[in-house]
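Subgroup meeting minutes
Present: P.N., E.W., G.H.
Scribe: E.W.

1. P.N. recapped why we're keeping a running log of single-chain structure predictions: easier to compare across weeks, and new members can see raw inputs and outputs side by side.
2. G.H. added today's entry (220 aa).
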Amino acid sequence: MCPQQVCPLCLNNHGGHFFQDDHRDYLQCQDCQLIFVLPEYFLSAEDEKARYDTHQNSPQDPRYRQFLSRLFLPIQQQLSPNSSGLDFGSGPGPTLSVMFEEVGHQMAIYDRFYADDPTVFDYRYDFITTSETVEHLQQPRQAFDLLWRCLKPGGLLGVMTQFVGDPADFNNWHYKNDLTHVCFYAESTFRWMAALWVTEPNFIETGVVLFRKPTKNITD
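Output recorded in log:
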């Protein structure tokens, strides 16, 4: 029997498609196609932070910069000089924000564990980035709604994460084995989000999607 659970993205309440592995149970929403971990498998905040504390990412690491360039370059190519940006989920070694600052943009950062300054959400930005973060969100709808409100009309939201492929291969997918990863997005999930925001998703490459906020925004 598939359990009933409210989808944390589209907020619909239904069973969906059920997955199970040796560690956790998952549901796939029938509407937005998000695959999400049931809440009883969420790590404590202490255990979650302990995992992130092991990350060695920093602006001095050229390989990490190259990885982030998948999101940095397609956004940078569309920005006006001296744009304002927010990097959401900046981590213990903020780097994407540094890359944008190096080319003349003004950056704010937010991270639940390492830069927990909610005043950054009092402002609006020309662009917002979130790299390898949305898979950690226990309440993704709440977070995405907040980011969309903080984006200026005409602004860009850039998301980088690993996309779900064929659901039949989900049980063998390494990305779900990180216990801090609790939400998994398919291209169809981002298309659902774009429809919610009355815009179109721009899939740059596998794992990177951009959304441009309409200049006359209906959902704000």
